[in-house]
Amino acid sequence: MRTPTTARVGQYAALLAYLVFLAFPFLWLISTAFKPPQELGSLHPTWIPENPTLDNFRQAFDEQPLLRAALNSLLAALGAAVIAVLIATPMAYVMARHRGRLARAATGWVVISQAFPFVLVIIPLFLVLKNLRLINSVPGLVMVYVVWSLPFALWMLAGYVRAVPAELEEAAAVDGAGRLRTLVSVTAPLLAPGIVATALFAFITAWNEFFFALVLLKTPEKQTLPVILTHFIGAEGVADLGPLAAAAFLATLPSLLVFALIQRRITGGMLAGAVKS
């Protein structure tokens, strides 16, 4: 009994160390956001602010258009998530159910496309958006986010489609349902956890994305939150640390809240009991 107990204790210790490693930057960010300037410049920083203040948040909203940037990020993230799911769901169904050479080639292209660096595709994307007159616009940014998140969305949803028992679709075909009716009425409801997980991935990816937004959006009225955060850094590279931490803390909240609200749907076993073995 000693060996399994020791191994389990070691596993829990490693998991705890990993959680502390992940939580440290976020906890320090919260602490910095509520510290006054005197404590930010202290040679002996503390975890808990001695004189917590909200002045950093007030200053952040006074210096930069955070609400407008948050609205731009929300529109871009929601648009990318919805469009990516609508496109990826039928395509993933075809890739999962028709395993021919074309499907294998499409799957290979999905995997390879994830290895492309941002710098390699930004110039073609910029030229395409320029010809479409979508530079410096949120719809143009949504189009880029959809293209960038679609391969991984296809990969995720194809795995969920393969987990749906084919017997359900065969039973629907016997009852006279066509492919489209089967997808909408039988397969899609069982794919709800996968669709939610894919939408969450696309939303968080678009919400946190920086490089494309920096290149494609020029005016402050159109820029997203990650780009606006760079405005708290001066020309000489000196950061306005308090307001920057406050704005960054507010920028991380939507992703955390969205995940907290729907994480049960992601882990729910909606396929359990669909077919008797």
TrEMBL record:
Sorted UniProt keywords: Cell membrane, Membrane, Transmembrane, Transmembrane helix, Transport
Alphabetical list of InterPro entries matching this protein: BP-dep_ABC_trans_perm (IPR050901), MetI-like (IPR000515), MetI-like_sf (IPR035906)
Membrane topology of this protein: Multi-pass membrane protein
One GO cellular component term: plasma membrane
Membrane spanning stretches: 12-34, 74-96, 108-129, 141-161, 182-207, 244-262
ABC transmembrane type-1 domain segment(s): 70-262
Compartments (UniProt record): Cell membrane
PROSITE patterns named in the record: ABC_TM1
SUPFAM superfamilies linked: MetI-like
GO biological process entries: transmembrane transport
Keyword Transmembrane helix: yes
Family per similarity comment: Belongs to the binding-protein-dependent transport system permease family.
Protein name: Sugar ABC transporter permease
Source organism of this protein record: Streptomyces mutabilis
